[in-house]
Amino acid sequence: MTPGASGGADRPAPTKLGYLIGALIVVAIGAGIYFALTAGKNEDPGNAHIATPSSGSTNGIEPDERIGTPVEDNAADLTEAAALAGCEVKEDLKDEGGEHLSREDDVPEYSTNPPTSGPHIGPPLQQADGAYLETPLPEDALHSLEHGRVAIQYDPALPESEQLELKGLYDSAYSGSLLFPNPDMPYAVAATSWTNLIGCKAYEGQKTIDAIRAFAVEHHGDAPEPIDLFPPTPGPSFSSD
What we know:
Oligomer: single chain
Shape: globular
Number of helices: 5
Number of domains: 1
Structural class: alpha/beta
Order of helices and strands: HHEEEEHEHEEEH
Number of strands: 8
Strand content: 5-15%
Largest sheet: 6 strands, mixed
């Protein structure tokens, strides 16, 4: 057979760089199709109100499907409500940066507890909106805060009746928010947004509920990145807009 008889013998052999570029193009197209198909769409959120895959990943954390105890929906000034509940409010804290980490990277020590800013996991591993029975990794929750989320956190040693009241608060305004236990913080109840924190040393019933709600209304969506870039679960939210 003469050279070129097969119709391809005269073609230059593909280079390794060519294969690499082709593979990257395929990955990019696949990612674009995935986000186009999943944007704004969620699996059944259930009683945990978890928004996957649109808002992020569960990262294997068990959802909180408990039905919360209804609580009063009181509008309150944040400063006054925090004082009545004995909570401390820290606003406009230092922005510790927004570098994306992989699972292989070292996670820095954050200057606040719970963390309110700093290097965090890259997408799509940001913690999905929802209520959880386990504690997400700090770097996973932080990426959610960077996109306008509020994270309500509580000491898992609280009696279940008090946990269910906090779940009731969450059930009343879950879109673009998270709820989970946090045994490593110095508070009975806390809430965080990007560079903002409210911490309550003790749970004081409706007073604490009012303070956490006031914080969430004040700071929901208060972040350097848009909340809708990772679409939350459709439903009621703390946003005052």
